[in-house]
TrEMBL record:
Any Pfam family: DJ-1_PfpI
Compositional bias annotation for Basic and acidic residues: 314-330
GO molecular function, one term: sequence-specific DNA binding
Name of the protein: AraC family transcriptional regulator
Classification via InterPro entries: Class_I_gatase-like (IPR029062), DJ-1/PfpI (IPR002818), Homeodomain-like_sf (IPR009057), HTH_AraC (IPR018060), HTH_AraC-typ_CS (IPR018062), INH-QAR (IPR052158)
Domain spans labelled HTH araC/xylS-type: 215-313
Listed SUPFAM superfamilies: Class I glutamine amidotransferase-like, Homeodomain-like
Region annotation (Disordered) ranges: 314-339
Keywords from the named record: DNA-binding, Transcription, Transcription regulation
Length: 339
């Protein structure tokens, strides 16, 4: 479902950068973007002191949480410090119970955990504190290596830049890749990193330059996604053995060549569905899939809806995501009944 009113819950002694992430993503007025109403909430009352000693005057109290479609806890003081105020935890539970989407970025995951919202669910947090989250809240299925986890109504992310990735993912899943890409371009950050990508990689993803075989291969693959690319073909293009290529690729990107390639194909299919009227069968082939039948399960797994439903939402004259998800579910039910 869409969201327009966003409550950002700020707690005392939090890191300044992480606290600013959702405000930077959703708060700036941009042409073509929904007019988000971002409300900075002093979750424990009074001025919010950051860990740098800077005092922030948040204009809203916890009543704003009760009115928000999207509630974000962008960070948290050290997990071994004093616990969140009980009234803040109650506000989070009320928000979730009435259907709001609730997000914990970085150490904000600990606040969602303290509210009991993550029991028996997978969740992410900063890799350094993942063991502490797992030992403190044993019912949570902690994912220590991923950038973020999307559970629909509850989302959690790794630290710092991982919070930006999750906020952009929220824009992408609700309003489409075009708007997400516009915001990313404005912020000068990568437009999309898959949630399953590793939090920490040995080297930054290379900017393709002459003499950089891996960077040149990534660029070449992006320009030829309509071809039947294999990992062997990629390693041959990079003039590396398969074993060396696999090891170097994971070091640089944090994922495997096959996973990266599939992710890029789905992103390309999304762009084509948004910007062209080509049949899904043609979109599938242009994105490197043998057919629409081959595209659909991967697209649904990564995006959450079928290609047709996605186009109805984000293509020219598209409807809201809620309508697309409903239509998608109806299509599945009809197909199942027909069989």
């Amino acid at each position: 479902m869409g969201f327009t009113t966003i409550a950002v819950m700020l707690f005392d002694e939090v890191p300044l950068f992480e606290a600013s992430v959702p405000i930077a993503v959703f708060g700036e007025r941009r042409s073509g973007l929904p007019d988000f109403d971002v409300r900075a909430v002093a979750a424990e009352g009074g001025p919010v002191r950051t860990d740098a000693g800077i005092a922030l005057s948040a204009p809203y109290d916890l009543d704003a949480v009760d009115e928000a479609d999207l509630v974000i806890v962008p960070t948290w003081r050290h997990p071994l410090g004093r616990p969140p105020a009980p009234e803040a935890l109650r506000a989070l539970r009320r928000a979730h119970d009435r259907g709001a989407t609730v997000v914990g970025l970085c150490l904000g995951t600990f606040v969602l955990a303290a509210a009991g919202l993550l029991d028996d669910r997978p969740a992410a947090t900063h890799w350094r504190y993942a063991p502490l989250l797992a030992s403190t809240y044993p019912r949570i299925q902690v994912k220590p290596d991923v950038l973020y986890v999307d559970e629909g109504d509850l989302l959690t992310s790794a630290g710092s830049a991982g919070g930006i990735d999750l906020c952009l993912h929220l824009i992408r899943r609700t309003y489409g890749s075009r708007l997400a890409n516009d915001i990313a371009r404005s912020m000068v950050v990568p437009p999309h990193r898959a949630g399953g990508q590793a939090q920490y990689i040995d080297h930054p993803v290379p900017v393709p330059t002459t003499g950089d075989p891996l960077g040149e291969t990534l660029e070449w693959a992006m320009r030829h996604l309509d071809r039947e690319l294999t990992v062997d073909a990629l390693s041959a293009h990079a003039m590396m053995s398969r074993r060396t290529f696999d090891r170097r690729f994971r070091q640089v990107t944090g994922t495997t060549p096959a996973q990266w390639l599939l992710h890029q194909r789905i992103l390309h299919a999304q762009r084509l569905l948004e910007t062209t009227t080509e049949p899904v069968e043609v979109v599938a082939r242009n994105a490197g899939f043998a057919s629409a039948v081959a595209l659909r399960p991967h697209f649904r797994r990564q995006v959450g809806v079928s290609p047709t439903a996605y186009r109805e939402t984000f293509g020219e004259g598209g409807h809201r995501l809620g309508s697309a998800r409903t239509r998608d579910a109806e299509d599945v039910a009809m197909n199942t009944a027909a069989r």
